[in-house]
Please model this.
Amino acid sequence: MNNQSNMSKVLAFFSESKFCNDCDTRIRFGDIDCPHCGCDLDDLYMQWAHNLLKNLNCEEEN
Ligand SMILES: [Zn+2]
Model:
């Protein structure tokens, strides 16, 4: 696997916009909860991480 392209994928994921599942407020990476409705963003980050790992083809098999 090519490291350079993996880094590009990671950077692309970081710059990707994420939105609150409840109120669609735009979330900046690092926010722990939604600045608008206070919704916990754990699920959002877990899903985000899951997609990133899948994208890098190193998803854990369990
Ligand atoms: Zn929200």
Notes: Residues 3-55 form one domain. The chain has one domain: 3-55.
